[in-house]
Automatic annotation (TrEMBL):
Entry keyword annotation includes Transcription: yes
SUPFAM superfamilies per UniProt: Winged helix' DNA-binding domain
A Pfam entry, by short name: GntR
Keyword vocabulary terms for this entry: DNA-binding, Transcription, Transcription regulation
Protein name: GntR family transcriptional regulator
Coiled coil: none
InterPro entries, sorted: Tscrpt_reg_HTH_GntR, WH-like_DNA-bd_sf, WH_DNA-bd_sf
Residues covered by the HTH gntR-type domain: 11-79
Originating species: Sulfobacillus thermosulfidooxidans
C-alpha cells in the first residue's frame, strides 16, 4: 500500500491520510468488500497515533467508502460512480508523469496548485446540477433529458434502487432531487438531512398523445403499455386526468409479455413507452403506436425554477 504522510507538508496528518485512502479506493487499489489494514497496523506502519487512523476511517465511512464490522475491521465499498471523468483522470496521470520527468516534487506542485485552483474556481459560477429519481432506467433517463432541455441545467438520472449506492459526497453536488409523488417518501428517507431538497413532481402525457386522443370517437379502444404495471397504471391516470374518461383502455405491460398481443387487436391507437413500442412495431410494423414516455408538468417545472431561484 503506497500511503505516506509527512508532518512538513501543508496539510494536517489526518487530512493527508484521508485524501490518499479516498483516492486509492476510487482508483481501485482495493476490491469491493476487501478489508483495509487494521487501525493498529496502519498506525504502526505510518508511525502515527491510532486515533488519527480511527478519525480517517470514520470519515471514509461517513462518505460511504468503507463500512465497519465490529471486531472484524473496515471493508472497502468503492463509489458507484467515480467523482472524476476519464479525461480528468488521464490529465492527472499525464501531469504527474511530466512532473516526474522534470525531477520535481509532485507534492510541492499540488501545494502550489490548490490555492490557484480555488481562486480560479471562485471566478466561475458552477452549473446547477439536479437529479431525477424514478423506478426504471428508461423512464429516469428520458425524464432527465426532458428536464435538462426545459431548464438548461445538468440533470443526472438515478434509478431508485441504485440511490443507496451513491455516497454522500456525490449526492451533495445536486441542488435538488426531483421524483414523482409515488416515490417521494422513499427518496426522502434515502437522503437524510436533504429531505427539503426533494421535489415531488407530476407527470403529464405529451402533446402528441393528447392530440391523437382528441381525434378518437367516444368508446374507441386505446391500448396503453409501459415497462412495468406501475407505469401503465400511471399512464391510465394521466389519460383520465387529461379529460378522456370515456375511452375504453386496453392495458398491458412488459412485465407480463403475454399481455402485449391484445394491444394489436382492433385498437385504433396504442400509447406505449419506447421499449414497448419497439417490440410492438417488430411484431406489426404498421401498428398505430405513439411513443409517450411522459414528461413533467409545467407546474412542476415552475416549482423547480422557483426553488432554484431561492437557492441562487
Amino acid at each position: 500500500m503506497d500511503v505516506f504522510v509527512n508532518p512538513q507538508w501543508e496539510w494536517p496528518i489526518h487530512d493527508q491520510l484521508f485524501r490518499q485512502l479516498k483516492a486509492a479506493i476510487e482508483d481501485g487499489c482495493w476490491q469491493d468488500g476487501e478489508r483495509l489494514p487494521s487501525v493498529r497496523e496502519l498506525a504502526a506502519v505510518l508511525r502515527i497515533h491510532r486515533n488519527t487512523v480511527v478519525k480517517v476511517y470514520a470519515a471514509l465511512e461517513e462518505l460511504g467508502y468503507v463500512s465497519s464490522h465490529s471486531g472484524k475491521g473496515f471493508f472497502v465499498h468503492p463509489p458507484a460512480k467515480k467523482p472524476l471523468s476519464h479525461e480528468m483522470e488521464q490529465l492527472i496521470k499525464e501531469t504527474l508523469e511530466r512532473i516526474r520527468d522534470l525531477g520535481e516534487d509532485p507534492v510541492l506542485f499540488a501545494q502550489a496548485l490548490l490555492p490557484r485552483a480555488m481562486r480560479e474556481h471562485a471566478k466561475e459560477k458552477p452549473r446547477v446540477r439536479l437529479a431525477v429519481i424514478e423506478c426504471t432506467a428508461e423512464q429516469t433517463t428520458l425524464l432527465a433529458k426532458d428536464l435538462a432541455r426545459a431548464l438548461d441545467v445538468d440533470v443526472e438520472p438515478i434509478v431508485l434502487d441504485a440511490l443507496a449506492r451513491w455516497n454522500k459526497t456525490d449526492l451533495n453536488q445536486f441542488a435538488l432531487f426531483v421524483t414523482t409523488f409515488q416515490h417521494v417518501e422513499e427518496v426522502q428517507q434515502a437522503l437524510p438531512g436533504r429531505s427539503n431538497a426533494v421535489i415531488p413532481g407530476l407527470l403529464s402525457a405529451h402533446l402528441e398523445t393528447i392530440k391523437a386522443l382528441q381525434n378518437l370517437s367516444r368508446g374507441d379502444r386505446v391500448g396503453i403499455a409501459c415497462v412495468n404495471w406501475e407505469g401503465t397504471h400511471r399512464l391510465r391516470e394521466m389519460i383520465h386526468q387529461a379529460g378522456f374518461d370515456d375511452i375504453n383502455l386496453v392495458e398491458a405491460s412488459l412485465e407480463e409479455p403475454q399481455t402485449l398481443p391484445r394491444l394489436l387487436e382492433n385498437v385504433p391507437l396504442i400509447v406505449a413507452a419506447t421499449k414497448v413500442a419497439e417490440i410492438l412495431k417488430a411484431f406489426k410494423p404498421d401498428a398505430p403506436v405513439i411513443v409517450d414516455d411522459r414528461t413533467f408538468t409545467e407546474g412542476t417545472l415552475r416549482e423547480i425554477r422557483s426553488r432554484l431561484e431561492q437557492n441562487a
